[in-house]
Amino acid sequence: MKAISPLMLLAVFFWAGAFIAGKMTANVIDPVTMTFLRFFIAAVVLDVYFFLRGRKIVLSGTLLKESLILAVVGMVGYHVLFYLALETTTGIHASLIAALNPFFTYFLSILFLKTALRREKFLYIFSAIFFVSLIIVNFDFRVVFQGGINPGDLFMILGVFLWASYSIILKGFIGKYEPIDLIAVVFNVTAVLLLPFVDYGLLASFFTLEAVVVASVVYMGVFPTVFGYLIQQVHIKKIGPDRTNIYFNLVPVVAVSLSVLILKESLSFLSLFSGLAVIFSVYRFNQI
After folding, report:
1. Any idea what DSSP says for residue 266?
2. Tens place of pLDDT for every residue, the chain, 288 residues?
């Protein structure tokens, strides 16, 4: 990084906080309804902003089609799996699995963007996968054969793959639009897509839920979603996806710390060592 961006550091804290807020709502709000609420709130915030500023978006067929693709893969696909994962796995596990995103993105970029294959990167890829695997099986690979792997961890792995796919697709679209215009359309499309599948009974009683649950939903709708995505896309356009993605290295560090401090999740010495090894592997991978 040539210069540290305070805004990207703020986005890191917003995204890390989403793991904590997501855990607060897990098993209270179902994943589809939670994803709808998150993007409905975000869409309303941006729509009000556009209205107050007198800003209009020209809705072309291309913009709607590309927004639909981004909504299905990145917003619906990833986030439903993210909330589904948090129903059974810990914030620590979810955040460390999410750290594998650069590797999935790298593989997909080799396949679809003709990115050059660099063999030295694979040392850190295998290192990170190995240590994440240790954490997932709780340092006992016998559970693989005994059916003891937490399904939440598997959902998170699939979600990270979809998020990497979203990142690759976004690279092809982001240069055509103003970032705030694109995310506004994507968020509105996401909310509309999910409308038929939400729990309307829960929505009707939403404000009777515990205050911490309501606050967590509002937090996720505003901070990691509106501000986080906007900061990310502005920086992708300004400094490029590679330099922007370096900041993602910090998300698991902050998320694990918040999981211990706020959620009171336990972090054994072996888990701490493995987590640091994963983060170091991701950091070194991005330096090559």
Report:
1. -
2. 456 788 888 999 999 999 999 999 999 999 999 999 999 999 999 999 999 999 999 899 999 999 999 999 999 999 999 999 999 999 999 999 999 988 998 999 999 988 888 989 999 999 999 999 998 887 877 766 666 688 999 999 999 999 999 988 988 887 888 888 999 999 999 999 999 999 999 999 999 999 999 999 999 999 999 999 888 878 877 776 667 767 877 889 899 999 999 999 998 888 899 999 998 998 888 787
Three-state DSSP class for 63?
Answer: helix
| Distance in angstroms (rounded) separating the CA atoms of residues 17 and 33 | 19
Q: Is 54 left (phi over 0), alpha (psi -120 to 50) or beta?
A: left
Residue in 136, 131, 99 with CA at minimum distance from that of residue 277: 131
DSSP state of 116: P
**CA nearest 100: which of 167, 170, 157?**
157
- How far does CA 277 lie from the centroid of its chain? 21
- For residue 79, give the nearest of 9, 150, 29 by alpha carbon: 29
- How far apart are alpha carbons 103 and 252 in whole angstroms? 15
Residue written as token pair 């460390």:
96
Structure tokens at 78: 């990833």
